[in-house]
Amino acid sequence: MSASESPAPKPTSDSIQLFSSRSTDYARFRPTYPEALFNWLASQCAATDTALDLAAGNGQASIPLTRHFHRVLACDASAEQLTAGDTWLNVQRFVADAEHLPLRSGQLDLLVVAQALHWFATPAFFNQARRALKPNGLFCAWCYSLLDISAAVDAIIHRLYYETLAGCWPAGRSSVDAGYRDIQPPFPRIEPPPFALEAHWDLRELMGYLRTWSAVKQWQQRHGRDPITSIEPQLTSAWGQAGQRRLIRWPLHFLTGFPNR
């Protein structure tokens, strides 16, 4: 998709309500981004005065940025997301639409969008990003799709994702599955080093994470039962020893560049 041709699907009020209703689970069960990513982001910026985490959710990217930037802003369309958790120290939060950012021109050294660009990759948004960034300001959006655990567990999750939940994912999810390769920004891309999220979880934590998927909530509303409970026996069998913690990886995919160079 070209940013100058087909606008990305924007989250409806129902979508915002759905994400808001899961804000506590997001804070509890979502994996954290690697510190090396934030080291790299800071190293690419000419200055480290102000960073914005757009569509910040529960602050997974906002909090690590405070270790590298003097001032960190966090913006989201959902006030409930911005109040989830208790680790917002030194982050200035505000509610706003991505296409109407209440920022002055040339304010930002860095603008990041973690797992959300597919909602608003429109010409209007990229114009806002260009306006808000300094001449050498860095734009970096990233996403992750399916996780890697083991062949047996992955096969069960793939069936859940592609078969059981088919038709329940929001339209923008196709861009996530494409690793944002279908979004063409109005500036040259640069390629970051390879990064991935990693976690050591037990089966209970994995199931909690799966329940944060928007499609799981949609399926549950349609059918009146929890699809994760339905696959729990299969997951338990494939997982191995009860209580075992396993390494889980989510490769990150990037859309990164300097809009004003």
State the gist of this model:
Keywords: Methyltransferase, Transferase. The chain is of the alpha/beta class.
Structure description:
The model is unreliable at 1-7 and 12-21 (pLDDT under 50). The protein has a 6-stranded mixed β-sheet with strand order 3-2-1-4-5-8. A two-stranded antiparallel ribbon has the order 6-7. The chain has 261 residues and is an alpha/beta fold. It is globular, with a radius of gyration of 18 Å. It is built from 11 helices and 8 strands. Strand 1, helix 4 (62-65) and strand 2 (71-76) form a beta-alpha-beta unit. It has one domain (13-257): Vaccinia Virus protein VP39 (Rossmann fold, 3-Layer(aba) Sandwich). 36% of the residues lie in helices and 20% in strands. The two termini are 23 Å apart. The longest helix has 14 residues, at 151-164. Residues 52-140 form the Methyltransferase type domain. Belongs to the methyltransferase superfamily. One of its GO terms (biological process) is methylation. This is Class I SAM-dependent methyltransferase. Keywords: Methyltransferase, Transferase.
